[in-house]
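[step 3/7] inverse_fold.run input=structure_tokens len=120
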């Protein structure tokens, strides 16, 4: 029986998460991409805490009427999560792409976070 695309993504994410682990010194930047929005969290896996978060669901990220499924929206989320991380004293993270390919909106978010000063 052939695995579905969702199942393949879940397997890929599990394989990535075996290696990627966030510590207090270098937390994990986790990205979740849906069809309509993109979410980013900076997580300390030792304490099981989300330190910083940003997404296109927030009203201050997008103007009303804009889509959260664009590369511009992903860049805004990357910039916002980097600014919030730098304010919290976090300047270096490990990147968790959530089982998605490092392409399109996921890559744009990471690049925007780098440009805003976060060491990804």
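[step 3/7] decode complete -> sequence:
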């Amino acid at each position: 029986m052939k695995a579905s695309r969702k199942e393949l993504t879940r397997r890929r994410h599990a394989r990535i998460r075996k290696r990627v682990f966030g510590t207090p010194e270098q937390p994990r930047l986790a990205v979740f991409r849906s069809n309509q929005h993109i979410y980013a969290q900076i997580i300390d896996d030792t304490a099981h805490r989300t330190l910083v978060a940003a997404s296109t669901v927030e009203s201050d990220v997008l103007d009303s009427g804009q889509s959260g499924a664009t590369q511009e929206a992903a860049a805004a989320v990357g910039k916002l999560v980097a600014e919030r991380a730098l304010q919290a004293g976090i300047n270096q993270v490990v990147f968790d792409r959530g089982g998605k390919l490092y392409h399109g909106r996921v890559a744009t978010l990471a690049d925007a976070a780098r440009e805003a000063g976060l060491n990804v």
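[step 4/7] annotate
Strands lie at 28-33, 38-44, 49-55, 94-96.
DSSP finds three helices and four strands in the chain.
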